[in-house]
Predict the structure.
Amino acid sequence: MQDYEVFLQQLITGLSNGMIIALVALGYTMVYGIIELINFAHGDVFMLGAFLALTLLGALGMEAWPSHWQLAGVAIMLLASAGFCGCLNWSLDRVAYRPLRRASKLSLLVSAIGCSFICTNLGLFWGGMPMEVFAGGVAAAAPKDFPQLIPQFNILGESAIRIVPADVAVLVVTVPLMIALVYLVKRTRLGRAMRAVAQDATAAALMGIPVDRVIGITFFIGGALGGFASVVYALYNNTIGFQMGYRAGMDAFTAAVLGGIGSLPGAVLGGLTIGCVRAMSDQYVETRWTNTIVFGILILILIFRPSGLLGSTRREKV
Amino acid sequence: MTVPILEVKDVHAAYGPVEVLRGVSLSVEAGEIVALIGSNGAGKSTTLLAISQIITPRSGDVRFCGESMIGLRGDQVIARGLVQVPEGRRVFARMSVDENLKLGAYLRDDITAVADDLRHVHELFPVLKDRGGQLAGTLSGGEQQMLAIGRALMSRPKLLMMDEPSMGIAPLLVTRIFSAIRELNRGGLTVLLVEQNARGALGLSSRGYVIETGKVTIGGDAQDLLRDDRIRSAYLGD
Ligand SMILES: Nc1ncnc2c1ncn2[C@@H]1O[C@H](COP(=O)(O)OP(=O)(O)OP(=O)(O)O)[C@@H](O)[C@H]1O
Ligand SMILES: [Mg+2]
């Protein structure tokens, strides 16, 4: 493999991982945009989405399906996990955050950390259930293999650079979702209501916008994006575990801050940046330095641009 | 005797433990402009928020067109035509003027009537048409006030409550806004006008109320209030 081929290969890996991170980051940034809360449980909701997908996969016996049916299986898992994570995130808001709307931001944050622990433990419990697809008997905390439903061949044929169908699958899922999200936020009545609540919830209420319902829908959409991301993540990395929410959540949260929390394009840019920096650092430095490098870059960028790459520095005129 | 369009009966309301409204009663008849005046912190804005059910009254009743508003959600109150222009304008600064106006019509789906109302708002405040694509945060204070009023009109109110529309605005624009209020009233809109600018507000109104530390203490014909000695010394600076 030539040097430039190694570089391109890492770039492809970085961009694929980056798109997945970006999808999770959108969930953080949307919720932050509307109620200024870092929803720490978001990464764990993402993790539970992957567990649901694997459970479904096992329950329906998808591995034994003919290969063109497996594509339908992937679609089923995507929709099921998205719906599940959306509802779960909505429920967290309804039960743990909504009663604290008038409380201090700090109470809300503590509540979010609590939700994160609860969800992590749910994942641990789920992983310990006696299911065949978890390769029965393996400890609850052990990583689970996620079967390879997407064929493994090089789309580029004999080339030294590999682009596999999973890379394409990442794009096919993430890009349309991001376009749909931007359309929803910028062009629809619901999106206008979401932006209005984000800017001034009381004024929005005075326009007749049902503020709590709009916030709930925002949680649902953010969670659903995490659900889509969880299935793509599982198919791409072929292993899931109860701690993946922490790791992916950390990357995605960092991506959201890096891009400018509250900004949708910022979350995508941040995700791609972190994905690529990780891949390059793994290749050219050393894996054990990767976290240091990622957070070093985050701190550097925030020193020079405190509101992130695309975050708004403008303060509203009152 | 006519039934008032809005009737506020002995409303008490509090922020946490602090009781701010200690028995507010007032009424507005259809077609009137009624002024509610009072000094800083008297509870004027809180009264409007309690009427709109943004804060829930502890006790008392708010009746609009004969129906109690207590227990309704904010959007239900607005859907019935009881709408307010908030204190300090509160336009959505990072949205365009057009988007702000669209948000005013959030609860409506009678598209043709909404388009009519938009034309009407543009006639009333032509600047909102010229600046349609501009971010609301870049408008001047007076223009933002016009936008806030226009936005509220887009919900097609029966009764419009305005919280200090003259606050922090150049005198020329205050005149412009007061004459718009009069024009709207001639067109059939009922108005409850909260003001610290007592002279301007009473000059525009048929009746007025004075609120002091959470209680309505004086109420009556606007011309009588303008001649009342207590009001002249406390609110008109005579
Ligand atoms: N969100 C709040 N939390 C606690 N106290 C509040 C809150 N809003 C207002 N108050 C208090 O309630 C009282 C009445 O406030 P309100 O805003 O209704 O007065 P106002 O008559 O509108 O005054 P102004 O002319 O300055 O607008 C004041 O003492 C104020 O400090
Ligand atoms: Mg006030």
Q: What stands out?
A: Residues B 15, 18, 20, 38, 40-46, 87, 196 surround adenosine-5'-triphosphate (ligand 1) (CB under 6 Å). Chain B has ten helices and ten strands. The first strand of chain B starts at residue 6 and ends at 15.
